[in-house]
Give the backbone structure.
Amino acid sequence: RKEVEQDPGPFNVPEGATVAFNCTYSNSASQSFFWYRQDCRKEPKLLMSVYSSGNEDGRFTAQLNRASQYISLLIRDSKLSDSATYLCVVRRVTGNQFYFGTGTSLTVIP
Amino acid sequence: EAQVTQNPRYLITVTGKKLTVTCSQNMNHEYMSWYRQDPGLGLRQIYYSMNVEVTDKGDVPEGYKVSRKEKRNFPLILESPSPNQTSLYFCASSIGLNYEQYFGPGTRLTVT
């Protein structure tokens, strides 16, 4: 079983829509959680860390559900510039390795 | 400007010809890592380093070597490249495990 699994999409949404992505992780001992954004095979860039209590950054909201072992990303009022691939990243409490999901592709349509 | 640099950005080589991809960061980060990205497989960690002279294997270390003699540099060495190492490679650095990883621009390697 993969360490981190994401729905690859693609998600095609109109501007202004709200879209949500989920990511599941297999190891209950996972410690740190992140969402990264990657544009067209360029380098990934941190979108936001995910905290146990959930956190919000502008139009973006991240949630962590440890019981069900998933994290989510909600994007409100989608912009054309949100079109990208969103990567879920997890680190276990033991070890210093990071595990990336394969990414979820989002296209925001005018 | 805070950044991670990689060189070369593009490389086409032949099977068995040793090569090195350099990675350098100017942020005084302790944690550095190498990833490869392949379609359908996502980013997979090759090697990582917690600090100078401390390196560990990631998920896919076979066929690769690394060294960390200085804090800022973390070169990736392919002693005898093979076609299955054709991939997009990213170097990354971070101040710590719970913090943002900053990625280099990537190196697209083709081994024929």
Notes: The longest strand of chain A covers residues 30-38. The mean pLDDT of chain A is 93. Residues 62 and 86 of chain A are 12 Å apart (CA to CA).
